[in-house]
Amino acid sequence: MTAVTVRVPAKVNLQLAVGPAREDGYHDLVNVFHAVSLFDEVTVTPGEPGSGRGPVSLSIDGEIGSRAADVPLDASNLAAKAARLLARETGAGGPVRIHLRKAIPVAGGMAGGSADAAATLVACDTLWGTGVPREELLRLAAELGSDVPFPLVGGTAVGTGRGERLAPVPCRGRFHWVFALAEAGLSTASVFAEYDRLRPDAPRPRLDDDLVAALAAGDARALGAALSNDLERAAFSLRPRLRDVLTTGRRAGALGAIVSGSGPTCAFLAADETAAAEVAAALDGSGRCARTVRAHGDVPGTTVVG
Ligand code: C5P
Fold first, then answer.
1. Can 11 be counted among the known catalytic residues?
2. Catalytic residue at 219?
3. Any idea what DSSP says for residue 146?
4. pTM (2 decimals)?
């Protein structure tokens, strides 16, 4: 086999309930992930032995413009770590080149880095013929980061623990989303730190029954009303202008508006494609975000496409 390409979706959090900080520094979460049709593609090819570039080399292109510079292309990249972890666990592999074709915003609260790591696990497993069982891939993914298991599964799922223990959530129909992307990213760790400062006495997180019912019924209006994100206040605190972005989308008819994960991407749920186009046009015309992208959910997780 000479090359494997894996397509992987971004996520938006429909509910992100955050408990108090744990002793290990992480937070217990109830995190409802929803995979949307905004995809990165990861291609792995065997590297040249003795090329002097180490066992893993990385390159990048895509629709992320100047933000490509924010993606580390050294050993600290989560995709590079994924390849090394799989090689170590299976004893297989060899030098490998990883090419990231990015559409998911960098440091945008849509788990783009986690998506690339999940795709790399699947791509290298296929390239090397290691046939790692799914449960084991999920375990390796969780070792890489709390958001890495979900893109392997896709659809809609609730994550508990650090967010890495997944159970599927039934989701009917198709939901239409608009995402307002920011010029500069936010670090997940700093948003959680700000959350701890603002909310030292956070209660235990609980799954929202109304949200689950809205998803099962395919009811966009009810889903819009049920969207919630405990990290939103912390994201506003670090980036006050995000409030204006949400207001702009709501005034343009969005059924729900929320910061995605730790932000700064803002997500808007629309009734249908026409409404989504109106919300996107209002956001693009407002000058309050760098640009918008439209997507639908949910969609499947990592898929080998070539
Ligand atoms: O797991 P991951 O490395 O993606 O998490 C990035 C950062 O987000 C962590 O270092 C931590 O600061 C924060 N985090 C958290 N609680 C979680 C998940 C992430 O505090 N459940």
1. yes
2. no
3. T
4. 0.95
